[in-house]
Amino acid sequence: xxxxxxxxxxxxxxxxxxxxxxxxxxxxxxxxxxxxxxxxxxxxxxxxxxxxxxxxxxxxxxxxxxxxxxxxxxxxxxxxxxxxxxxxxxxxxxxxxxxxxxxxxxxxxxxxxxxxxxxxxxxxxxxxxxxxxxxxxxxxxxxxxxxxxxxxxxxxxxxxxxxxxxxxxxxxxxxxxxxxxxxxxxxxxxxxxxxxxxxxxxxxxxxxxxxxxxxxxxxxxxxxxxxxxxxxxxxxxxxxxxxxxxxxxxxxxxxxxxxxxxxxxxxxxxxxxxxxxxxxxxxxxxxxxxxxxxxxxxxxxxxxxxxxxxxxxxxxxxxxxxxxxxxxxxxxxxx
Length: 335
Known about the structure:
Elements (H helix, E strand, L loop, with lengths): L2 E3 L6 E3 L1 E4 L10 H13 L4 E3 L8 H10 L8 E6 L15 H15 L4 E6 L8 H13 L3 E6 L4 H14 L3 E4 L14 H8 L2 E4 L39 H9 L1 H6 L4 H10 L4 E6 L4 H8 L8 H11 L21
Parallel strand pairs: 3-4, 3-10, 4-5, 5-6, 6-7, 7-8, 8-9, 9-10
Antiparallel strand pairs: 1-2
């Protein structure tokens, strides 16, 4: 495993992080989830990402149980706050001081730890003054309940405002967690350069596009049984990518991957990690062998000519419009 600094901070994270969105507490049983977490540890992965909303808090519980007994100082545990949890009452969502302070206590209890290494605002809250949100995060950091603060899917303007407040409050806002892969590049034109200026790293999710970039979905054929495309909770995220033309183009990436001794999934991860501003790539898994396969992508870098070939093969299937970033955060709170 290779390690990188999280932005310009002193914290190092494993290039491949293990995340449990759509898996723990929903798609796979706790025993299998624990096996995947232990496989991650065996592969040298030290960075684990979750959120209170995943499986309505159950994912945090499963991860905490799976990591029980490990040396806490050797792990980097990330979680998030924003989306509705619990009975989803009027204050069970958003980035108000009330919800943030109550959420961190719940997350720490479920994860079985006294602190998280990174506490992230899962989306921007248009209904709460940003000053209130950042003040609550500052209290959490100063109380030792989180070492660093991050955001997820925020616009460049929101990130710059938050970073200015963070400096005034003397807390380290060090990362952004966006969706990023060969097909989805909406952060490249604005968010990435701004974060580079501010010393913030990218903790990217969906680096293999929910499995589309693994090559397991074939043009003209039904999705494999048991895959995300056939699951009740995951199919909605990739159904628009399962076109014959795109799947054919993904298959055309296979020779490039083979030239580098990589599977298509590893090649997709190597593509993400070839961007120096990416601190780590979050991968999920439903089987331990998937974890080990993903971990083998660490340390691989693709040259500029290979990156250009990827662009040529994927063509207009690449989404780059930076205005889409703002669509991720609901304009009104979800209940």
